[in-house]
């Protein structure tokens, strides 16, 4: 199986891939591909898939880490071309309105299409339970136990009964790939908290992942919370880390210092054999 980073905030130098604040990943298997997240815009997803030689027809299903637009911006474009394939999400909150609120007001950042549109374009599967998407590739299901710091962002809200309230990110979903060297965990934004997802994987699959890839959303943590995450990662076997997207530069610097050989870059164009 092969991991391919299709869209990220950064692209491999000289790759000709576009950069944007967003994430999209493909897991290519003998049974076809899984598209995990779709970047922020149709243009970037289209350009990068094409540049990487990934045929849209080879993708068998889509899994979405959560509703935020930097992960769902290319979804409608992709489904219109691919036709009705299964789309997986972890919780009904995936369909709720989401906002980013600050001094200047609130801006919509949720799923850019309505439920009816999505159901017309795709076979929608919303389930809090872990699901095998293709042989060896799993959706984590809902991350319920959250003993470690979560990846909250300032001002991120969800609409509930006509009111904007702090988003508990119940739709946070990650991918788990059972590869030749063990489990690989791929996060979208890890809003549920990186270590909470890691422990969830252990609970469901009976082992800790040996490598963690994706947006870890650690930028909002205090230095003490970040130390807790560093210590927590040691405790789960010091997996190799491939932080990208929303992890945060300060957090990447702290992790790199704590794990001198264990932190690797993961811009668009990165491929890993799993
Ligand atoms: Fe997010
Ligand atoms: Fe994100």
Write structural notes for this entry.
With 274 residues, the protein is an alpha/beta fold. 23% of the residues lie in helices and 29% in strands. The chain has seven helices and 17 strands. The strands form three sheets. Strands 8-5-4-3-2-1-17 form a seven-stranded mixed beta sheet. The chain has a six-stranded mixed beta sheet with strand order 9-10-13-14-15-16, with helices on one face. Strands 7-6-11-12 form a four-stranded antiparallel beta sheet, with no helix packed on it. A hairpin with a 2-residue loop joins β13 (175-179) and β14. The longest helix has 13 residues, at 223-235. The mean pLDDT is 97. It binds fe (ii) ion (FE2) (2 copies). The site of one fe (ii) ion has 4 residues, from loops.
SSE arrangement:
Elements: E1 2-7, E2 24-29, E3 32-36, H1 42-51, E4 59-63, H2 69-72, H3 75-82, E5 86-89, E6 98-102, E7 105-108, H4 115-121, E8 123-126, E9 131-134, E10 137-139, E11 156-160, E12 163-166, E13 175-179, E14 182-187, H5 194-205, E15 211-215, H6 223-235, E16 240-244, H7 249-258, E17 271-273
Parallel strand pairs: 3-4, 4-5, 5-8, 14-15, 15-16
Antiparallel strand pairs: 1-2, 1-17, 2-3, 6-7, 6-11, 9-10, 10-13, 11-12, 13-14
The structure holds fe (ii) ion (2 copies).
